[in-house]
Amino acid sequence: MSTRTAHQAKKREDAEDADGTDELTAVQAALAAEHAAVYGYGVVGGRIAAGRRKEAMAAYDAHRARRDALHRKVRDLGGTPQAAAAAYELPFPVPDAAAAVRLAAELEDRLAAVYADLVRAGGRARRREAAGALREAAVRAVRWRGGGVAFPGLAERAAAAAPSGSEDASAGAL
Q1: What are the φ/ψ torsions at residue 86 (nearest 5 degrees)?
Q2: Which candidate, 80, 151, 81, 78, places its Cα nearest to that of 116?
Q3: Residues in the chain with pLDDT < 70?
Q4: Which end of the chain has a smaller Cβ tally under 10 Å, C or N?
Q5: Which residues on neighbouring strands pair with residue 89, listed in sequence order?
Q6: CB 28 within 8 A of CB 74
Q7: Nearest in space to 127 (alpha carbons), one of 117, 136, 138
Q8: 3-17 and 124-145 helices cross at what angle (nearest 10)?
Q9: Prediction pTM value
């Protein structure tokens, strides 16, 4: 590819990336999900068995790094990054290591769904990054759960779309 052709392709990619509010909304949602995942992995780390603690710490660090990158992307898109909540409602009690493993898998499933939305709404470069994040979440979910789903980020959405009562109840939920 010539330098001129590469430059033109880059300009088209940048134009696609500057695609308005849908992308900013999806990036904000991903940032919110990463805030929740960081919180959730704090709970996981407190309950997980010693043999899986290293895996939980690696996931925690990965989500912190992705959260920080998304924070910068929201600013780059002209938005104000959403702040983390002081606390999040867990989807179920986490009294022991088995529940911590289930929580970690649930966190990754929820992240996969958010990144599937970002793949749809993002510009070309953002789609590539979101697809990578979706893949990482799906792989971590499989490792935690011991099995996967055919289409990570999509199958789980059907269960999440079920009515859950009030809209406000989900604001601080994981």
Answers
A1: -65, -30
A2: 151
A3: 1-20, 149-173
A4: N
A5: 173
A6: yes
A7: 117
A8: 70
A9: 0.77
